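User: Show me a protein chain along with its predicted structure.
Assistant: Here is one chain, sequence first, then structure tokens.
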Amino acid sequence: MDPDLSDEDSVVDLSFQAESPLAPPAELLERLPSCDWLLQGGGQQIFFPPSEAPGRPQEPRCWSSFLEHSRVPVVTEEVAREALLSFVNSKCCYGSAAAGDLIIQELKPQTLCRYRLETFSESRISEWTFQPFTSHSVDGPHRGTSPRLWDIKVQVPPMFQEDTRKFQVPHSSLVKARCPSCSGAKRRARQPRRCQLCSGSGRRRCSTCSGRGSKTCATCKGEKKLLHFIQLVIMWKNSLFEFVTEHQLDCPAELLAKAKGENLFKDENTMVYPIVDFPLREISLASQRGIAEHSAALGSRARVLQQRQTIELIPLTEVHYWYQGKTSVYYVYGTDHKVYVVDYPERYCCGCTII
């Protein structure tokens, strides 16, 4: 502490908690009649997007042409063994001798269909926020009426890429005449007890208050006043719905959901319509269910900007093999030949999870 400071000057409560400055006082809100509709209920407000008329449904598709031009590579014994060797070499506790010596007895291929729906949407909320008042120019109601939140034009990020941005709503600024944390004194109010770091002895300079017995107000940054304004928060979200056709094999569904596939069909538009005539009825039902779920979840709380639905073919092969008198299986899945195996015969430790 500075030696010329008295005991009284050193008395300060550095943990003093002021009232929250987030909400402007009622007398200020009365000056903003054009934005009263933003404040009902307090806190963050969600704003319903303008409704848009749906487009016309597409004509029925000829799925036979899609299926005829689709080519899913066949997994041969050589491919199955190479896939297993690649998998084993990526694991620190698996030996490659078994993968090279095992005898492949049978290959059971199966092609699955994966339906995926992506819905890219935008939602908007408003909230009161503040910052230290450092300028004499205030963009308040005297400069015009604040626009409706959905009328504010912003740059949309690339489709299907999530993002969150914040903007100050024009003509919504209000100045609070005195910072509630320091009562306009630039520094926090003093409390009847000594500085905890120097105990009022003045023997060393307090690193928190710099020997003044008080510190700069963290709320107004020493500016004494706060500028309140309505902040628009825009969130772009990509909702995902996935479905993989059923199979009787023991390969986990979560692996197949992430597997690389052969693209069979892609439909992208502002609004896509359910697939109703696909040869596999469960894909048509999944399309109807996914679109209905996204519509119900988003409803009037967000505006749909773009939708994309795809159908992919996922190859899956069950490999039966014999090694040292025992028979077992492993699975090769996806167009990039990922492997799933439960009981690999040459395993040196039990601390790894095979995925």
